[in-house]
Specification:
Elements: H1 2-6, H2 17-28, H3 38-50, E1 55-65, E2 68-79, E3 81-92, H4 105-122, E4 127-137, H5 153-164, E5 171-178, E6 187-190, H6 195-207, E7 214-219, H7 226-230, E8 235-239, H8 262-279
Parallel strand pairs: 3-4, 3-5, 5-8, 6-7
Antiparallel strand pairs: 1-2, 2-4
Helix pairs in contact: 2-4, 2-8, 6-8
Length: 281
């Protein structure tokens, strides 16, 4: 009876890990995807093709970077719910500008592919609970060296826009996925995330039996969630910042598809779905 009581009532849908991994493989197959590159344009076409039946907004702007001015685009797919409020699931889709051999399988690719699979779960009819918006953010990576002005271009633009037009007040939560495909999955407890939201995610992971992959180490992460936190939105960054021994594969040409696992995509995807369900109660 104790085990049955712990099982979630009206459990959320489950992601298809093979399909999520296929998306990641197709994305990585486009090669490096820094802003302004042909790979980046291919990926934008790929996202639009996958989301053509959805209510997708393209948030276009020009970013001033140390490498010059670049057009950038955030993509926002909206899935209406039965209750007030919005839960945002976000990731970045660009790869490092300065490294032409960087495939970004985990850093950029894993979140981008998993969000396409999550969109499959949210699509079709009104869902119980708040609306869900799935957001692919551009320009997360620094062009020269990470700083307050050379990083997270897409999220800074969108957070400012949503703060100005009042959208930020409607957001119940923003859950960011970054580097979540590592076969050796250990999601950090980020001290820049909202503790109450991390608590919901931890509860979701525990309900699903995935708690050993979550929050064993606390670190402070600068990422796409920070501009939204400054706009007053509750945020959580789900990131595994130990990629290879001592994070050796991060931002190197070793960030390749063979380091990833469909099981990791499944774990993170299902925890996100369960967290969304719990947040909507």
């Amino acid at each position: 009876p104790a085990a049955a009581a712990a099982a979630p009532a009206g459990a959320a849908a489950r992601v298809n890990p093979a399909r999520a991994m296929q998306y990641v493989g197709e994305i990585v197959g486009m090669g490096p995807r820094p802003v302004g590159s042909s790979g980046h344009r291919k990926l934008e076409d790929y996202l639009r093709a996958h989301l053509k039946s959805d209510n997708v907004e393209t948030d276009e702007f020009t970013a001033t970077t140390p490498a010059g001015a670049f057009p950038m685009r955030n993509y926002i797919a909206r899935y209406p719910g039965t209750k007030d409020g919005v839960i945002v699931i976000a990731t970045h889709y660009d790869t490092i500008f300065s490294q032409k051999d960087f495939l970004g399988a985990n850093d950029g690719g894993s979140g981008t592919g998993l969000l396409l699979e999550l969109a499959n779960q949210f699509r079709g009819g009104k869902r119980e609970g708040p609306s869900v918006w799935v957001v692919w953010l551009d320009g997360e990576e620094a062009f020269q060296k990470w700083s307050a002005t050379d990083s997270v271009y897409g999220s800074r633009h969108l957070a400012e826009k949503w703060q100005k037009d009042g959208t930020a007040k409607k957001l119940k939560a923003l859950i960011l996925l970054d580097m979540i495909g590592d076969a050796d999955l250990n999601i950090e407890r980020d001290s820049n995330s909202t503790p109450a939201l991390l608590g919901v995610i931890e509860q979701a992971a525990t309900r699903l039996g995935y708690q050993s992959h979550f929050f064993r180490r606390e670190i402070e992460v600068e990422d796409d969630h920070r501009p939204f936190a400054r706009a007053g939105v509750p945020v959580a960054d789900l990131i595994d910042f130990d990629y290879g021994y001592g994070n050796a594969f991060w931002h190197t040409k070793e960030d390749t598809l063979d380091k990833l696992s469909p099981r990791s995509l499944e774990i993170v995807g299902n925890v996100v779905l369960e967290s969304v369900r719990m947040l909507g109660q």
